[in-house]
TrEMBL record:
Source superkingdom: Bacteria
Name under which the protein is recorded: DNA/RNA non-specific endonuclease
SMART domains, sorted: Endonuclease_NS (SM00892), NUC (SM00477)
InterPro entries: DNA/RNA_non-sp_Endonuclease_sf, Endo_G_ENPP1-like_dom, ENPP1-3/EXOG-like_nuc-like, His-Me_finger_sf, Non-specific_endonuclease
Chain residues that bind Mg(2+): 164
Organism name: Hymenobacter wooponensis
ENPP1-3/EXOG-like endonuclease/phosphodiesterase domain: residues covered: 71-280
Keyword Signal listed: yes
Gene3D superfamilies: Extracellular Endonuclease, subunit A
Length: 295
């Protein structure tokens, strides 16, 4: 049933501890900072794309709608003409969590191919939408470089403030409590569609049409105890959280009400999520709606 996509290999650095916040104008929660004291000695920094390349993204500028961007802190598929990522994938363990403060240094991503428009922080000014991180600031605070990477505008989407600062911030904080309990997570966040409702009302694009406002924002979180050989350790009993929210200001603050299946997100996006996991395991975990705790 699953397609086979090429997977990115590449080991990331071991060591360094990290922590901090979610998205635009959201202060770091106090809880995750405790990871500095509670970090599991077995935790490591692992391949951000270990569970698969969802769209078969390629590091070739001719694939402007599905351009692979690989950074130490996360991996993404970027869409030049939307001015946003299609998806961003990252690994999270206590090895990434430390005490570096939130940098708030939003900046264009100058690593994008020559000639491509580089979205800036001012692209969102006065729009009524937050500069919504895909990979959160609080998941990458082992160093100034790690945290600064999350503030590159290629990691942002125009996100309704109440979506960003309440519902999504709650899920991000919960993910870090799972890490503090001795787990490691693989997280894939993405968006699709055109048109959302921010604090100034409905909009389809920003910055003279160069940044697309998505209609939906989704996330998939795979939870497992710290260990090695991660893709092979995903079993039919592994907890997989999938949510899909509208991009508007009227969301419920409880992210749990937006739980769905990985299969449903795949159907909406055309992606093959968790493609590095065995097909037999995928068929079970991707069809299941998570019913675990939300805090």
């Amino acid at each position: 049933m699953k397609r086979t996509f090429s997977r990115l290999a590449g080991l990331l650095l071991l060591g360094s501890l990290a922590v901090s916040c979610s998205k635009d104008s959201v202060a770091p929660a106090a809880g995750p900072s405790a990871a500095v004291q509670t970090a599991d000695a077995t935790a490591t920094r692992d391949n951000n794309l270990a569970l698969g390349n969802p769209s078969g993204a390629v590091a070739d500028p001719s694939y402007y709608w599905n351009y692979l961007v690989t950074k130490s802190q996360y991996t993404m598929s970027y869409h030049r003409d939307r001015g946003t990522p299609n998806w961003v994938s990252w690994h999270l363990s206590s090895a990434w969590l430390g005490s570096t403060p939130r940098q708030d240094n939003f900046a264009p991503d100058n690593s994008l191919p020559a000639g491509w428009y580089r979205v800036t922080s001012t692209s969102y000014t006065g729009s009524g939408f937050d500069r919504g991180h895909n990979c959160p600031s609080a998941d990458r605070t082992g160093s100034v470089a790690d945290n600064s990477a999350t503030f590159l505008m290629s990691n942002m989407i125009p996100q309704a403030p109440q979506n960003n600062q309440r519902t999504w911030a709650g899920l991000e904080n919960y993910c870090r409590t799972l890490v503090n309990a001795g787990n490691e997570l693989y997280i894939i966040c993405g968006s699709y569609g055109k048109g959302g409702t921010g604090s100034n009302g409905y909009a389809t694009t920003l910055d003279a049409g160069r940044v697309t406002v998505p209609t939906r924002v989704w996330k998939v979180v795979v939870v497992m105890p710290n260990g090695t050989g991660d893709a092979t350790r995903v079993t039919t009993g592994t907890r997989v959280i999938a949510i899909n929210t509208p991009n508007d200001n009227s969301l419920d603050t409880n992210w749990g009400v937006y739980r769905t299946t990985v299969d449903a997100i795949e159907q909406a996006t055309g992606y093959d999520l968790l493609s590095a996991v065995s097909a037999s395991v995928q068929s079970v975990v991707e069809a299941r709606v998570d019913n675990g705790p939300t805090s």
